[in-house]
Structures are given as C-alpha cells and as structure tokens.
Amino acid sequence: MRKKLLILVKIAVSIVVILFLYERISYDFQGFISAFNIYAQNIFIILLVSILMPINWLMEVLKWKYSLKPITKISISEASVGVFSGIALGFITPHAIGDYFAKVFSISHENRKSALGLILISRMLQMLPTLLFGLIAVYFISDFSLSEFDFSYSSSFALSSIIGFVIFGFFLLLYFNRNHPRVKDYLWPIKKLGLKLFVLLSALSIVRYIIFSLQFLILLSVLELKINLFHQFMGIAFMFLIKSILPTFNFLNDLGVREVSIAFFFEKLEVSVAPIIAAGLILWLINIAVPAAIGLFYIPKLKLIYKK
Q1: Which of 92-101, 131-140, 147-156, 227-236 has the lowest average pLDDT?
Q2: How is it placed in the membrane, per its record (predicted)?
C-alpha cells in the first residue's frame, strides 16, 4: 500500500513539474528561443562547459574507485564501467535506481552485498555540499529582500547547518557500531573506510559540486542577468537541493525538476526565467544525456553472470 502511494505521489509531482515547466516556457517562448540563439552565437561557452563535463564525471569515477578500497581494488577503467553504465541505467529509472544496479554488477560477485553500503555513503557525502549550500539558499528565498544580505545572520545559519551535519554523523557512527546480522554485511566496509578515505571522498564530492555549479554559472554568464554572481550561485544551490529531495517518477531523470526549481528561485528576484530554463536544458544535455549515451557502450561490460 505504501509503495503504491509513493508511486502515485511521484507521478503527481512529475505531472505538476511538467505542467509548470510548460506554462513558464509558453509565457515567454520568445525569450526561450532567444536564449538558444545566444548560445548558438557563443559556441565557445558551450565548448567550455562540455570540457568540464568529463572532469565532473571523473570525480565520480574516482569516488567509486576509492570508496571500494575497503573491499577490493579496481582500476580507473573498471570504475568507469560502473559509473557510466550507471548513468545510462539511471537515466530511465526513478531516483537513479539503475545506478545502484550498475555499480553493484560492475564488481565481482562476492563483494556485491558489501558494496551497497559504500554506494550509500558515497551518495550521502555528495549530499553534504548540496544540503549546506541548499539550506543557505532556502534562507535567501524565504527573505523578502534578497538584495540585502545579512552576513552575520547567514554565517550563523551556515554554522548551525554544519553543526547539524556533525551531530547527524555522530549518530550515524553510533548506528554503524551496531552488530545486527541483517546490516553487518553492509556496514563493515564503511567502518573500514578510515578518516583519510572519508576526507578524500568528501573532497571529491565538494569538487564535483563546484564543477556542476561552475558549468551553470558559465552558461548564465552570457544571459546578462541583472543580479550578482552570488545570487546566481544561490539559485543553483537551491536547484540542486530541490532536485535531490523532490520525489519524481520521470523517465528522463532530473529533466524538468532542475529547471522548475531554478525558475521558482529566480522569479523571486524578478528575473525572466525562460532563458534560465534554456540554460538548464543545455546543461542537462551536456551533463546527463551525452554521458548516458556513452554509458550504453559500457552496459555490456557489466558482470551479470557470476563466474568463479
């Protein structure tokens, strides 16, 4: 019953997202088309964002390689199989379930159960910068005047968020110390990560978040938005937060969710959102659609059948 209810909620949210996106594009269709014309005249910008794409996914490949260190050693090429086939399968599954499937079946059979916990911790570490900057963006969008930035108050807000993450991590570690037989196989590799690997994975997650944000900022730079760079970054942070927590059932992965969330934020700044939606679609094509197409060639390399 709960699963059916969750599916209905995801479908409903997806329909709302699509309708909202359609309404915003229809309202300023000329601005939407003009934005694509601007990018057509600035091919260098598209090339620059495209060059950052493989660097972005290299961070994810390295995260997968080093997160597996407690149970097995794999090469960069082997890690690439799990990541890129995961992009392709995650492209057509809700909340990228296919990504879990691909990564699990990209390694040897005897390590698969233990890898699930490592996939989970890798995703949680990627959520840290998303939550931190996203919560700051939520503070901004809740304020009546985003142009007046109370630095001291916002710094306290950010500090409180960090303290909250630390407390959450503390209780998470307490949970990991449990010896429940049902979770022991999943948790023992996480306990073997160690501080050095944990810091490395966290750093790779932050670098990947920065590259994502930089790509979007580069695309927005040619639109001549009448807001400063910091507010643009806050809009991007809000987008990543909503994309990460909103339940959707969209066969095109996060297409639509990112555009709607960033449109909602920039509307508060009285900025025309149609060009920003166009920038979001271009970023989706570069960062998701192209890697997903590449990932199709990696799917046959998955180890679906166990061979001793």
Answers
A1: 147-156
A2: Multi-pass membrane protein
